[in-house]
């Protein structure tokens, strides 16, 4: 799924992404960024999956910023001609990531969606530095699940994990134009599993 790979693995159940290469690329990017004297100011928008509404929600004060960032994502990822479908798929993507975060919440502290090299990136901040085979397998399974989901065919996303980092260090990994903090869901139903039916169209709520 990486934009730097000739083959994205869609439809191949044996596909396993090269995580060590991706992590090294991100670290090099971060080091290059941190060599600059200043970093662009950025506002990370918190996204919450609302079970009762079956959609992504943001706080009222972040609604306009969210709209701006989503318009930027649509333009950067060249999805203007399919904007409504793309936004519906983004809604489903967040539901998928929220479910995964909650299944692995004892091993992670935060999860972000941002842009990198012409696609989305889902960056997970680990709660500890120790290497964990089971966690890496879970991350690979998430990547493969998204890649093979026909309802997410407009979504190109890289997934990776970082060791515990400060907020200042984390800013070097986030595109200041598009960066979202993905939070656990609220409500009682739980986000829909992917790959079984078409995504439900819904707009981001301010509430």
Keywords:
alpha/beta; disordered N terminus; 19% strand; 207 residues; disordered C terminus; 6 strands; 6-stranded mixed β-sheet
Written description of the protein model:
The protein is an alpha/beta fold and 207 residues long. The protein has 5 helices and 6 strands, in the order H-E-E-H-H-E-E-H-E-H-E. It has helices spanning 19-34, 63-76, 83-103, 133-148, 167-170; strands at residues 45-50, 55-57, 108-116, 119-126, 157-162, 179-186. The protein has a 6-stranded mixed sheet. The radius of gyration is 16 Å and the shape is globular. The chain starts with 18 loop residues before the first helix and ends in a 21-residue tail after the last strand.
Q: Strand order, main sheet: write it out.
A: 2-1-6-3-4-5
Percentage of residues assigned to helices: 25-40%
Structure summary, number of beta strands: 6
* Number of helical stretches of at least 4 residues: 5
Q: Give the helix/strand class.
A: alpha/beta
Q: What is the straight-line distance between the termini?
A: 33 Å
* Low-confidence blocks of residues: 1-11, 13-21, 30-41, 188-207
Strand content: 15-25%
Mean pLDDT: 78
Work out the oligomeric state of the chains in this entry: single chain
Compute the gyration radius: what is it?
16 Å
Shape: globular
Largest sheet: 6 strands, mixed
């Amino acid at each position: 799924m990486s934009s730097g790979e000739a083959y994205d693995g869609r439809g191949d159940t044996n596909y396993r992404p090269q995580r060590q290469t991706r992590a090294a690329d991100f670290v090099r990017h971060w080091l290059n960024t941190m060599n600059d004297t200043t970093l662009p100011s950025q506002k990370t928008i918190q996204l919450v999956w609302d079970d009762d509404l079956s959609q992504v929600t943001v706080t009222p004060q972040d609604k306009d910023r969210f709209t701006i960032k989503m318009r930027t994502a649509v333009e950067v990822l060249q999805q203007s001609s399919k904007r409504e479908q793309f936004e519906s798929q983004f809604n489903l993507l967040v539901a998928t990531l929220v479910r995964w975060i909650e299944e692995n919440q004892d091993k992670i502290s935060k999860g972000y969606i941002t842009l990198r090299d012409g696609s989305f990136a889902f960056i997970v901040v680990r709660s500890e530095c120790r290497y964990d085979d089971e966690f890496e397998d879970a991350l690979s399974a998430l990547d493969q699940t998204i890649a093979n989901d026909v309802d997410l065919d407009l979504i190109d996303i890289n997934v990776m994990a970082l060791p515990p980092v400060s907020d200042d260090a984390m800013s070097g990994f986030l595109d200041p134009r598009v960066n979202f903090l993905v939070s656990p869901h609220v409500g009682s139903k739980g986000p829909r599993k992917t790959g079984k039916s078409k995504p439900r169209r819904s707009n981001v709520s301010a509430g």
